[in-house]
Amino acid sequence: MLTRGTNSGIHVWGAVGFREAVTDSPEDKRWVASKFCDDLQAALNEKPTLKAFVFFTNIELTPAEEDALIREGNHRGLGYVEVFTRKRLRILLDNPADLRLPIQDLSVPMPESERASFLERFGAQLEGLMLKQLEVVEKQLARLEFFQDCAKPLTSANVFVKLKRACSPAELGHFRILVQVLNIQKPDLHPILCMAGRDGYPIWRRRDDQDPIMGVNCLVWSRQQESERPSEVEVQGLGTLGDLDQRHLFVYVTKPLLDWISGIGVQVNEYVLAFAETEHLVPIDIAPLMSWPEPLTESERAVPWIELLLKADGSSLPSPAWPTKNWYLDFTASTPSKLPIT
User: Fold this and answer.
1) Are residues 180 and 318 in the same domain?
2) Quick one: pLDDT at residue 249?
3) What is the DSSP string of 269-309?
């Protein structure tokens, strides 16, 4: 898109080179260089005596790459060439008063009323466009980082819950949590990954007083699936984050715990692979097929399990008749969120 303006006989042409889903890749930079040259030539074709040209782009360039574009304009006879990249546009939009700088460089005066009118008319649109483009870039970079991290070895795995409020060991009592990660769609050479936790209340003692302290005992283990396969086929371990793709989650908690939690999720390495608020969950009176890996007391075994399924999208039926769906990890459909570094 080409635009032009004039004041006191000075003609200034401008062009815009915005591209969707930019990542500042070499391909993006080749595209913007070609777009700059094509728009510049189009401006010169229409006005051969043109001396000033401004180019706006949402692709970030290095100072050397910007200089190369400016030199190209100078070689074609222009005395003034200006390039506004994504970062520079963002700075200007964050501080609209700085918009006077390029105008002053061109010796084109702009009254305060005109600048205010310009910002009132186009400022929100420009800022919205830039923020949208930046959001797209951030999502693309996050996805590229995630796929790179998929090749890294598994170093940690846990299931976590969010409580509705702070509570004491006496209120929570005995609880257990279990999440199984497995592939149920086809024969799987990988073992089942199990992440679990249970109450672990160490005793705090001071003189003659003693009270339990809130705590959790965490467990992580794997178990080979029982299925028919040739004995000579070698079982493959779950070695990387990427090995968890296309797998189902089976989520269980002891029934009384559900009254205390507002959400439950699964974290592997630095990524939250799955999370759901309790309002999006459907409890089913089903216990896991595998037994708890450590001994339980008789009273602990008496606490019933429930399985937590997800409510199906678009459902409007009242509980307990909610249509449900299984938890499923699909890295091609979405990018797990990465925990901030603390």
Assistant:
1) yes
2) 93
3) TTEEEEEEEGGGEEEE----SSPPSS---HHHHTSPEEEEE
